[in-house]
């Protein structure tokens, strides 16, 4: 299933209702002066959240009832994936027992930069504390170096350490092109 298109106003309202006012504010902040540098390797800051993309991600997970997520890279999408899993767990945790799944309602974040992995993890923890969430999905924050390799005679990126999981939703948000 595909999410319906919404206006910017509707999307901002959606995030505010979810307790994510800070996300809306962050999306409206100005980008740093060196944002469009030719050498993005020099820019070591978090990206400004793209509300339309995050809204679409949330709805993909909810509409298709995905219960185990593997995210390559981390960021604002980690929080949104977590929130979607939390809501699905709240609504379907009893029904899920009928499925033979080893890791239902779990989020696996695979990141090659410890700094951004910690930022994403702390963002989720802070959100849970602020909203007093209970019975939350498990989060696995996994660090791994990446390397370039050849796959079927094409250059590819490969993570050295990979978590054991069987996701039904994979979100590709990394690694960065210089990693």
Portion in strands: 15-25%
Count of β-strands: 6
Query: What order do the strands of the largest sheet run in, or round the barrel if closed?
Result: 3-2-1-6
Low-confidence stretches: none
Helix amount: 25-40%
The helix/strand class is alpha/beta
Radius of gyration, in angstroms, nearest whole number: 17 Å
Helix count, DSSP H or I runs of 4 or more residues = 5
Distance between the termini: 33 Å
Gross morphology is globular
Order of helices and strands: HHHEHEHEEEE
Q: What can be said about the biggest beta sheet?
A: 4 strands, parallel
**Mean pLDDT across every amino acid position:** 88
Descriptive key words:
6 strands; single chain; 5 helices; alpha/beta; two-stranded antiparallel sheet; 179 residues
List the helices and strands and how they pair.
Blueprint lengths: L7 H10 L3 H8 L22 H13 L4 E5 L3 H17 L13 E6 L2 H18 L6 E6 L2 E6 L2 E6 L9 E4 L7
Helix pairs in contact: 1-2, 3-4, 4-5
What do these coordinates show?
The chain has 179 residues and is an alpha/beta fold. The chain is 37% helix and 18% strand. The chain has five helices and six strands; from the N terminus they run H-H-H-E-H-E-H-E-E-E-E. The protein has helices at residues 8-17, 21-28, 51-63, 76-92, 114-131, and strands at 68-72, 106-111, 138-143, 146-151, 154-159, 169-172. A four-stranded parallel sheet has the order 3-2-1-6, with helices on one face. Helix 3 runs parallel beside helix 4 (76-92) and helix 4 packs across helix 5 (114-131). It is globular, with a radius of gyration of 17 Å. It starts with 7 loop residues before the first helix and ends in a 7-residue tail after the last strand.
